[in-house]
Amino acid sequence: MLLRRSDLAQPLDASALFHRPGRLVLEIGFGDGRFLAGLARRHPDWNLLGVEVSLASVSRAWRRMRREGLHTVRLFKGNARFLVRDVLPPASLHRVYVNFPDPWPRKRHLENRLLQAEFFDLVSTRLEPGGTLCLTTDHEEYFDFAREQAAGSGRFEEAVLEPPRETLETKYALKWRAEARHIQHAAWTVRDPAPGQEPRIPFEPMQHALLAGDLSGVGTFTKQVRRFEGGAAVVTEAFRTLDGSGLLFTVVVEEPDLRQELLVRAFEKEAGVQVGLQAFGDPIATRGVREGLRAVTAWLEAQGLTLVKTWI
Ligand SMILES: C[S@@+](CC[C@H](N)C(=O)[O-])C[C@H]1O[C@@H](n2cnc3c(N)ncnc32)[C@H](O)[C@@H]1O
Question: What is the helix, strand, coil percentage profile of the chain, to 5?
Answer without folding.
Answer: 30, 35, 35
